[in-house]
Input
Amino acid sequence: MSSTPAPDADLGTIAHEYRRFAERQAKGHSPVYEALSVAVAGDERLLALLHALPPSKRQPNLLLAAARHLGAPLDSTGEFLTWVVSRWDQVSSLVLARLTQTNESARCATLLPVLAALPQPLALIEVGASAGLCLYPDRYRYRYDQSQAFGPADSPVTLPCRTTGPVPIPRQLPEVVWRSGVDLNPLDPSDPEDADWLESLVWPDQTERLQRLRGALDVARAEPAHVVRGDLNEAVSKLVDQAPKGATPVVFHSAVLAYLSVDARAQFARTLRNLPCRWISNESPSVFPALLDLLPEPAPTDRATFVMALDERPIAFTGPHGEHLNWFVDAGLPSGE
Output
């Protein structure tokens, strides 16, 4: 365990990240994670240990998931901090080995109106696919607001979504003829260790999310998608080229590009502009600042919100876990035609 002191300013930056996570993401969704994140932000021992990790490995989601995976106590912030510090070798090893690959199938509820309006059939290509659970929008059921659920009657997954604005709720599901993706570290839905890690990424007390994850894993096991290991900027062009003739290639991603450098994001955007595909981006507003000037209204600042765009045209605000969809009045149908 390293005892090298870190500059106070660096520790302050990490502490700010954990307080921001507590306020902007955990609050109202996970009281346990809210309390633990605030506690981490105030513990210089743990902040110093986090500082010794690569910046990309200091994320609250990653630390908390690793600690839970290893059996950390969650009911007492003091016990949690002591446990993590005393077992830092185990915790840090898992943090370094794993990624925050939260695979939230509920995001399909916000993607569905776009996918259903594009020329059918579709060849789906997900960037940052994790276990590929968002590659099955045609295998899930949906319930928008209080309307009747629709989709395959035998699906183990039903996705609820609150809406505002003129959401073009589809009358039928998209026809998907090809499912592929790329990830730096693809997870195998059939691998018990990968499935356990995905369960550790579900926040405490969120039993519905856990049940949804398990149902989506069953769907993916029954119909494995083609997910390759690699860098997104290098792999996406090859996957678009491999899409079946006669299908509309659709490249999409959610909560992925924030983990890339600004230069890598710019390179990805240049790559997508030159590919014969449709492009759905569902990311934090800060990922593509140029989109902010095209928004018909400011992005909410009191909660975590994504901007969904089709071919670099903003069409909606979305919930990070697919919980709500705010369609812009002038967005129209997303066919782009």
Notes: The mean pLDDT is 92.
